Predict the structure.
Amino acid sequence: MSQTAKPHLLNSVDASLAEWAVEAKVPRYRVAQVRKWLFEKRAGDWDAMTDLPKAVRADLAERFQLWTTEVAKHTQADDGTEKLLLSLADGGQIECVLLRDTTRRTICISTQVGCGMGCVFCASGLDGVDRNLTAGEIVEQILLLQRLLSPEERLSHIVVMGMGEPLANLDRLLVALAEAHREDGLGISARRITISTVGLPPAIDRLARHEQNYRLAISLHAPNDELRNQLVPVNKNIGLDPIMQAADRYFDVSGRRITYEYVLLADLNDAPEHARQLARILQGREALLNVIPYNPVAGLPYGTPTAERRQTFRAILEEGGVRVKFRHRKGDRIDAACGQLRRSQQPLPVVELS
């Protein structure tokens, strides 16, 4: 069997192993053994699965690809943040991140090569979107990041906030997250898995009908349509009201508080009036506002607001009754913001504000 003809096991672990067990005439318990090696024991290759007979391991290696990506760059920060730049089989590149915070071990994963949403300040979308990732490529990020942990560390949270718009690749994402959630997978509770989106109402409604109610984070970045159309161009075809209504429906079904993300850009969306508008939008909603001071991207003309500007923005929100959290920027020195590491390996264009 040629290397290129081998199916990627992580695309459909159960179905692939069930078919293999029948064809290879091996006991069904071997399937559980392979799953345990992959998701619990962090095996790096077939040979590491030492309680499988050598002939069984050889057969698996002949039939399946276990890894399809290569680590092009691995960076580490003093705060424990680690980032992988992964090269895909077709030449594309994606990024994923491990974040350490007291007892939490959170990973941030990507769903697309690039992004088609067009957020003007984001490094991920500067070149548009090339393609959706396969379910296997998403699972592979999870397992590769887990392998960065020491034996006593355990993966606790997953955020789907990396490159791409997760709800534009929902079918494959849900397959991947099922592996993370399963008891014989990584056993991560649905309430510790967060999917971030710019806001695609039909997909949010579809997610609400899914058997697992994952946490939902919606990237607002602006408190009115005029400004949001400028910062998040896809909003021209959607609008804030339909997004907020879809978020309300998701909360009604799931009972899980919605997180709203707001990247704070100097002199663009950080004025007191923006804070007041934002407070009016969120008033009465069971929500957490996550404010993220902008992490500058080489080649883009956007900056981080001053400390005074940030403090004023926060005070207005809190006075308006908004539950707000200002995110501490982690991994600045390793280009940890989404898309930055990939672009650091490429020539950088310069974009000017009109």
Summary: The chain has a mean pLDDT of 92.
